[in-house]
Specification:
Order of helices and strands: HEHHEEEEEHEEEEEEEEEEEEEEEE
Number of strands: 22
CATH superfamily of the largest domain: FlgT, C-terminal domain
Strand content: 35-45%
Largest sheet: 6 strands, antiparallel, barrel
CATH topology of the largest domain: Thrombin, subunit H
Amino acid sequence: MRRFIMILAIIVAAAAFTTASAVRTHYIHYGDTLWELAIRYYDNPFYWEDILEANPQIEGVEYLYPGDEIVIPDIYGNIISTDYQQYSQGAYTTSGISRVPQLSRLLLETTGMVTPDPPQPVGYVVETDLAREYQFQEYSSYAGDIMAIDIGGDQGVEVDRVYKIYKMGEEVRHPRTGVLMGNVIRVAGVCRVVETAPASSIVLLEHSYLPVDLGDFLVPYTSIAPVAVNSSEVVSEMDAWVLALQNPELERAYSYDVVFIDRGSQDGLNPGDVFSLFEYGSDVISPSGGTVTTPDLQLANLIILDTTPATSAAMIFDIQSLDLISPGERLELTRKQP
């Protein structure tokens, strides 16, 4: 009996450890809703209530503020698979199944890049959150905040002019060669000019995807073209390596996260091309005494969202493994736009 109790305790402890280790968090971006987060993390919108229940600090579905960190809980029980239309048992974590990429305009607008030649700034953020009570403190700005930029009427700035705000990130080196690939350039938000002076302007931060800080730089806003998803299988071989993750808070990438890879337009890549992550087969000894090679297992698919000459941004839209994607992973091109 004592042995049974000890075994049961070990099982419970192991289950608790698995649950705790699999829990992740999410930083709220402009436009996030609990319904869409449930689709993103569980492929099932009706689990929005589980996210709300796991975050008692959220007063209601309308109280999601960009920059806030919330818990994305594990969901246990019967989860319907959108691919197989059947119920599966057991723990459902942040891996997800979505054979067709779900590409929103918001996702495309926030892609960012890895490049040694970032977009040419036309100005910089020089004051954040002008409505704050204590001016001597430094604050980040979020959607709805008023900020100051260092360009104005003398530079041709007009009221209602729109700018995209970029944030300079960390240097990235190739995981295999060590060659410097450039810096991660992340999209922090979009602002609109509401008042101008000769050498500066006041802007409204209309959308924020990351906290906007002093020194973040501006480029004129241009709308992102939609990405076609009608790619077809390819036989030509091309591999790529994951350089970095779009989200600076993550160490591993999940379903619908964006990663940067070391192939770009000069390699013939276009938005809509698809790379895959494989677990490669190995030689094993059969009980019959012979040696057989196990097949390669496709673990994840990623679709190219945008390219620079030497790098691309890609979104994970189908991941079949709990071994999530980290910088240094090797990918293979499997589908290409016709």
